[in-house]
Amino acid sequence: MKPSWKRIMIFLGVLALLVAVGKLFGLETYARPSVLKGLLLGAGAWGYILFLALFAIGCILGLPGLLFVAASVYTFGQLEGGVLAITGGVLAVTIQFSLARWAGGKALAETKSGLITKLLKGLDARPVFTVIVLRFVAQISPPVNYALAWSNIRFRDYVMGSAIGLTIVLSVIISLSSCLLPLS
Fold this sequence. Notes:
The protein has 10 helices and no strands. It is mainly α. The protein has one domain (about 5-180). Helix 2 (about 35-40) packs antiparallel against helix 3 and helix 5 (about 80-105) crosses helix 9 (about 140-150). The protein is globular and about 50 Å long.
């Protein structure tokens, strides 16, 4: 096994361990919009920074990113919460990408698999567009973030595609949230 694949396995093992510890201590009880609202509003001005940190950490631990989008809109309102949710989404996927790239380098780009090589050619040809399309389909999906981190995509292209894609898709979700959430 190549060193980068060993590092990926260790990285995924550490993530699994963190998720298990979170479940053991019942941290998922805090992952409800009403609980997050109380916590964030109780923190005053620090609530914004706390939200961004919780969004990033929660996504790393495998909590659904849309949970944080809902909590942001529910807590801070559609406009302010929407901007915060989009910012948090881009920050979360960027941190996931950075951690995965650090852990595994460009391991997928090194593979000899015909299917993976074929898929990566499309990514190499139009990286920003590909990431935008992936955001439409998978929004804040950790497996997508990790796979992209282990490809040849440049950090700049990843962040640009993620920012554009998440801004569009989350704006649509947030604009529809007035039908789904009791906004305060």
